[in-house]
Design goal:
The complex is a heterodimer of chains A (233) and B (589).
Chain A: E1 3-9, E2 19-25, H1 34-44, E3 63-66, E4 69-72, E5 85-88, E6 95-97, E7 100-101, H2 104-112, H3 132-136, H4 155-159, H5 166-177, H6 185-191, H7 206-210, H8 217-232
Parallel strand pairs in A: 1-5
Antiparallel strand pairs in A: 1-2, 3-4, 3-5, 6-7
Helix pairs in contact in A: 2-5, 5-8
Chain B: E1 5-14, H1 18-29, E2 34-38, E3 54-55, H2 66-76, H3 83-103, E4 117-124, E5 131-136, H4 142-157, E6 160-163, E7 165-172, E8 178-185, E9 191-201, H5 222-229, E10 234-235, E11 240-247, H6 257-260, E12 264-266, H7 274-277, H8 287-299, E13 311-314, H9 320-326, H10 328-338, E14 347-356, E15 360-361, E16 367-372, E17 375-385, E18 390-391, H11 403-425, H12 434-446, H13 458-472, E19 476-477, H14 479-495, H15 510-534, E20 543-544, H16 552-555, E21 557-562, E22 566-571
Parallel strand pairs in B: 1-2, 1-9, 2-6, 9-17, 15-18, 19-20
Antiparallel strand pairs in B: 3-5, 4-5, 7-8, 8-9, 10-21, 11-14, 12-13, 13-14, 16-17, 21-22
Helix pairs in contact in B: 1-4, 1-11, 2-3, 3-11, 5-15, 13-14, 13-15, 14-15
Classes of the chains: A alpha+beta (233), B alpha/beta (589).
Chain lengths: 233, 589
């Protein structure tokens, strides 16, 4: 099987502007993932740059825009992709080089929601208790791998990258809001008030469509909104 | 060239997995200034991939205590583990788990609200009795849950992170004091000297020396390479764990929890193979035993599939509900990579390179220790190591599943505790040794020029290294195969000196990072192959066909391999801190 690629290239040291480069791979084994193909291309052209690590969809390094849809290269089967496979960096983020974007704005959003458990009472000598039903509320929230696929697919983020927190950070906010052990609910809800941080979500649901872990940030955002309404009553 | 930028911190931590982040949190809370340097964003570290859980005698499910856990760990180590360190770790385990829970780790729960625990291999009640239920879990994403929570707590504690900085080499003066490290920012290629009163290596293992591995591509033994080049020997590198259940031919890990929850292995004849190798523990024997059993079945023609090159892991009898609740991550992995739902069909598995038991020798305070004249364990001033890159040694010749997350948390914390004491007594930075900086800069800049016209590429050498390690240092070993392996790896170590890369740009140059990683991998390969060749016995994961028995008289000792002087040995610490020693016994599961 031969596969053709069309890949976004930009190295600020040598290129005045980005361009798309054609590549071809011959004799590809059936069933491989896109990452394996990119690694083969890198053997041909060492300058082609992208992040990667675990190769099984848990570290979140190799997020990129694949035929117009954000995803992780390591769990995207090559055979399912229309050719030429067009690969670009995640949209809406500053490009450092080729498929590598500066994720710092994304991490800032994450840090802005205070993504850590807040308990004000003295801790017991053993674990804090949590029933299986309470713990179940965290399923679908704690599994986020911070790949950035959702946030960089969100039109509300593209329009207001500095004001809207984006689906990934809001999913994290929800992860702590829903945690029965957390004691900062009011503070967390207040922190999300105003027209932008949370309420710029217009339920376009691109985030749900692209999440490689099958998570649902839109639902999490909806649950936060419900909690806010309940609090204001 | 412009002067190299310099920063000063109390402590430099290299590596942002569970070990590095646990230490960083403790130190930041103690108001030490901490720099954490990581070549990837912290939550991309390989701790994130740990699945099954973390051992601690909480007794939430079955009766338990730390002393039983200690016995199991020593037996699992095939009596090569240091008993003082193992006692320390098993005693500290429950507290380490409760701390994590307080940090926010979303552990799975039992009906009474306490932390869920599951059965794992090699765990027993009452010193070898019934199966213990000791492994604390967050579904089968325990590493992810722990790593993210630790990173989150470090955000709260305002730890200083240098994300996507690569560490080139340790800096030290002529008397051997470690003074920090030379690192560079991968984003713009600019070097940076980080001066530190104490340096903690927490860089993880070297699983990328093997072709078929569960390990992430970042697991290139960088800290091990740095230690070797700084004159620190590596300990017990011949003991490399092959996990029994990697997806056959692909390498993705299928957690031991799959067997802990009731799954079992079947050979080509449909037989439950572990009944023959471990009549009592069966599929929950320790990993070296299960991996050898699978490898033997395959060698003797009882494998599955067209090529009879794997066995099957059966889970479908557990029911979809249990699989979805307890093993959702590996279910997803199987569906993605095999198109198989383990709730319906068995998973093809085979032994896959997984864990570096050996590493940088440390004591139980995580201080790096080296032989000096007649003392086998003299602390290196200012240098610490914790986690998979270290060899305390709590795993000895074979690590038990669930003890690796425990190791990183207990010894990450122990390192921080000792560092706090060190900082109180050593208030000022020692003067930097400029010749040491120069040497590190030479290594960094070496890849900017290609020494020979016909130097080989990094890719070619890396592929060859992985093939040599797989063929010559796999599950079963013998003298002839190892001798050839030593020759070939020595040649690779020579050939890499002339290797070249085509990309010399400064902006996010991943080709240069891979070249520096290759040097570390080859150093780890050298240590592993040489140590394996020299050890003429079978113990734990080191299985010699030509020396099938354990030889306590000659070999109950740790190997130490250094680049300059080759192999040396030191005794196992058989005396625990407060209880009686567990003397070596035949190891039956």
């Amino acid at each position: 099987m031969t596969v053709r690629f069309n890949i976004y290239r930009y190295n600020p040291e040598v290129d005045n502007e980005p361009y798309m480069q054609d590549y071809e791979l011959e004799e590809i084994e059936p069933g491989i993932m896109l990452l394996a193909a990119l690694l083969k291309l890198k053997e041909q052209d060492a300058s082609l740059s992208f992040r990667r690590s675990c190769g099984e969809g848990v570290c979140g390094s190799d997020s990129m825009n694949i035929n117009g849809v954000n995803g992780l290269a390591c769990i995207t089967p090559l055979s399912e992709l229309k050719q030429p496979v067009e690969i670009r960096p995640l949209p809406g983020m500053p490009v450092i080089r080729d498929l590598i974007v500066d994720m710092e704005p994304f991490y800032q959003q994450y840090r802005a929601v205070k993504p850590y458990l807040i308990v004000n009472d003295p801790m017991p000598e053993v674990e804090l208790r949590q029933t299986p039903a309470q713990r179940k509320k965290l399923d679908g929230l704690y599994e986020c791998i911070l790949c950035g696929c959702c946030t960089t697919a969100c039109p509300s983020f593209w329009w207001n990258p500095d004001k809207f927190l984006g689906p990934a950070a809001l999913l994290q906010a929800s992860r702590f809001i829903e945690d029965s052990r957390d004691q900062a609910l009011d503070e967390r809800l207040e922190n999300l008030e105003g027209p932008f941080k949370l309420f710029r979500c217009h339920t376009i649901m691109n985030c749900v469509q692209v999440c490689p872990k099958g998570l649902n940030p839109t639902r999490a955002i909806g649950n936060i909104k419900k909690k806010m309404v309940k609090k204001s009553l | 060239m412009a002067a190299i930028q310099r920063r000063q911190f109390d402590t430099l931590i290299i590596g942002a997995g569970g070990g590095g982040l646990r230490a960083a949190l403790r130190l930041s809370e103690a108001e030490a200034s901490v720099a954490v340097v990581s070549k990837v964003f912290p939550t991309r570290s390989h701790t994130v991939a740990a699945q099954g859980g973390m051992n601690a005698a909480l007794a939430n499910v079955s009766p338990d205590n730390w002393h039983w856990h200690m016995f199991d760990t020593i037996k699992g180590s095939d009596y090569l583990g240091d008993q003082d360190a193992i006692e320390y770790m098993c005693r500290a385990a429950p507290k380490a788990v409760y701390e994590l829970e307080h940090f926010g780790v979303p552990f799975s729960r039992l009906d009474n609200g306490s932390i869920y625990q599951r059965a794992f291999g090699g765990q027993s009640q009452n010193f070898g009795g019934d199966q213990a239920v000791r492994t604390c879990a967050a579904a089968d994403r325990t590493g992810h849950a722990i790593l993210h929570s630790l990173y989150q707590q470090n955000i709260r504690a305002k730890t200083h992170f240098f994300d996507e900085y690569f560490s080139v080499d340790l800096l030290k003066d002529e008397e051997g004091h470690v003074l920090g490290a030379l690192v560079f920012n991968i984003m713009d290629g600019q070097p940076l000297i980080i001066e530190a009163k104490t340096t903690l290596l927490a860089t993880g293992g070297a699983g990328q020396i093997y072709r078929n591995t569960t390990n992430a591509m970042i697991n290139t033994g960088d800290g091990l390479g740095m230690a070797l080049r700084a004159g620190v020997p590596l300990q017990d590198m011949e003991f490399f764990q092959f996990h029994p259940t990697g997806i056959a031919g692909r390498g993705m890990l299928i957690t031991e929890a799959a067997r802990g929850e009731g799954g079992y292995l079947v050979n080509g004849e449909g037989e439950r193979l572990m009944e023959r190798y471990a009549p009592k523990a069966k599929d929950l024997a320790s990993r070296d035993v299960v991996s050898r059993a699978i490898a033997t079945e395959i060698r003797e023609g009882r494998g599955c599939g067209v090529n009879k090159d794997h066995v099957l892991l059966k889970l479908d009898h557990l029911g979809e509900a249990v699989i979805q609740q307890r093993l959702p991550g590996i279910r997803q992995t199987c569906m993605t990579f095999l198109g198989i739902d383990p709730a319906e069909a068995a998973i093809p598995v085979s032994p896959t390179a997984h864990y570096t038991m050996g590493g940088i020798p440390t004591n139980r305070h995580a201080q790096v220790v080296v032989p000096v004249k007649d003392t086998p364990e003299e602390a290196v001033y200012g240098l610490y190591a914790a986690g998979e890159c270290a060899c305390v040694s709590v795993h000895g010749a074979n690590r038990l599943g669930g003890n690796s997350l425990l190791d990183i948390l207990v010894f990450g914390r122990a390192a921080a505790n000792h560092i706090i004491g060190h900082l109180a007594e050593n208030r000022y930075h020692r003067p930097m040794d400029e010749s040491s900086v120069e040497k590190a800069m030479q290594r960094f800049q070496r890849w900017n020029k290609n020494p020979g016209q016909d130097g080989e590429s990094v890719n070619v050498l890396r592929h060859e290294l992985k093939t040599v390690m797989e063929k010559h240092c796999g599950v079963f070993r013998n003298e002839a195969v190892l001798r050839e392996g030593v020759e070939q790896i020595e040649q690779l170590a020579e050939r890499v000196k002339d290797a070249k890369i085509e990309d010399h740009s400064d902006t996010f140059n991943t080709a240069r990072v891979e070249a520096l990683e290759l040097e570390n991998l080859i150093a780890c390969g050298l240590a592993t192959m040489h140590s394996a060749f020299a050890r003429t016995e079978s113990r734990g994961a080191h299985s010699r066909m030509d020396y099938p028995e354990r030889d306590d008289k000659n070999w109950m000792r740790h190997s130490l391999y250094s680049l300059d002087t080759g192999l040396d040995y030191k005794p196992v610490r058989t005396k625990p801190v407060s209880v009686d020693s567990f003397p070596p016994k035949p190891r039956i599961y």
